[in-house]
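User: Predict Thiol-disulfide oxidoreductase's structure from this.
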Amino acid sequence: MRMTRKKWINLLWVLFMVTVLFTPAGFHIKVFVNRLISFSATEVAEADRETLSDYHWPLQTIEGKRVNLTDFKGEVVLINVWATWCPPCVAEMPSFQELYNAYGNRVPMLFVAHDEREKVARFLGKKGYKLPIYYEAGPTPTVLQSTSIPVTYVVDKKGSIRVRKVGAADWNSQKTRTLLDSLLQE
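Assistant:
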C-alpha cells in the first residue's frame, strides 16, 4: 500500500497531537505556546472592580512559617495562584521572577501554590526562581476565589482589585510596571 502525501500529512498531524497531549514533551510545547501568546494583563474597569473587604486568609510559607493576608492590608499586593503541573502557570514564571526582582521590596508578592511542597521546591531549584511561595492554611476570601489557575490579582492600598487575570500573562511588561508605580504613589 502506497502512502499518499495526504496520508503522510495526516499521520504527522496525529503524531504531533499525541506528542502534545500524552507525553512530557507536550507539556513543554504548551508552556512555549503560552509564552508566545502572553500579553500584559489589563486593569479592571473602575465600574467592575471588586473590593477585598475581608483580608483574613491564613497562609504558610514553603518553610512552614504562618502569615496572613491581613499582614499586607494597606499595601499594594500581587497574588498569584499557580501549580507546577499547569503549563500557563509555568509559562508566566520567568516574567514574575523579573517583576519580583524589580519590585519585591516594594510590592508584596504572594505566590500561592496548589501543589505538593516537594514538587514546588524541586521546580524552583531547577529553574533558579527565588519567589515567595505560600500555601493556603485556611479558606480563601470570596473575591479571590477562582476555579481556574493561574489567576493573578493586583490589589491596591484600599483593597480594590485592580487586576484579575486568569491565564498566563507577561507580568514584567511596561504596562504592569506603570500600573504598579502609579498604585505605589496613591
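Residues 5-34 form one domain.
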